Amino acid sequence: MKPEHDYLWDGSGPADADVAELERSLGAFRHRGAPPELPAKMPRRRRSWIPIAIGAALAAAAILFFLLRGGASGPCGGGDGYRFDTVAGVARCGDREVARGTLPVGGWLETSADGAAELDVSTIGHVRLGANSRLGLVASGPRQQRLSLARGTMHAKVNAPPRLFVVDTPRTTAVDLGCEYDLTVAPDGTGRIVVTHGQVELAGNGHLSVVPAGATARMHTPTGPGTPMRRDATAALAAAIDRFDDGEHAALDDILAQAEFPDAITLFNLFDRVTPDERARVYDYLNAIAPAPRGVTRERMVAGDAGATSAWRSDLEHRIYQIPREDWMPKP
Hints:
Elements: H1 7-10, H2 17-26, H3 44-47, H4 49-69, E1 82-88, E2 91-93, E3 96-98, E4 100-103, E5 108-111, E6 116-121, E7 125-129, E8 134-140, E9 145-158, E10 165-168, E11 173-176, E12 180-185, E13 191-197, E14 199-204, E15 207-212, E16 215-218, E17 229-230, H5 235-245, H6 251-258, H7 264-269, H8 276-289, H9 298-302, H10 306-322, H11 325-328
Parallel strand pairs: 9-10
Antiparallel strand pairs: 1-4, 1-6, 2-3, 2-5, 5-8, 6-7, 7-9, 8-9, 9-12, 10-11, 11-14, 12-13, 13-16, 14-15, 16-17
């Protein structure tokens, strides 16, 4: 017997929220013309496809409904993605609180003010998400593992080929070169990265910064990613770098006056941020404390020669990593 009020039967009564959501999604495909005229009777062999077509339409609707609802086991239930566990406070994935699950591509994981979560980055590493954080999974495949940190903090430890693991932030992209680091992003898109192993390349606004182990950099400045500096850089040098990154080019004088050999990477990263005349000054000072390798000339560096830049960077990285850890790495 037909119920007195049944929305699915005759459109009467209130619509279930899930049904209303499905109608909105399929509304663009609604037929808006007059109903087609059908022959009074079709041959039997032509009517045989009708149950199949109806079945296919119902299956398509069910699949769409499944996708809209986030899957039978919930938006972060099972399937492909990053497995995660809530280790403190509360975490939300999709529209519900979850203790554990799988963050799918296109999904977001959020933590409470006292929350934390741990995620497996495919088979290449792990991420710990801190409090008040929002993390999305952009892509997961053999050619790229890509996350998006909208806000909050994360600790990443990855063992993979360079450039496989990438984290987008609102203003800068962090490209892993095989490393471990901590990343903080404020609601306005600013933040800081601290690298403990390997290197991270920061890209934004047409500029690059290469942040090595033991160094830190601002995620965003008025001109792009910040200039890397040692975590234990002197207060005077750190202040000069911040002023320079904020657009005060006169601070270059203070940077050159304060920098020592362990700060060579800071000076090297300045080549991409200064005028040709200033490049000559940076070259002279850097060459005095960390002589350029053979073939890397003042003229080539002033001109921005890619080959010279790459050769000197490799040489500096080798020399810096040869310095005893206690001499330049931050104290625990």
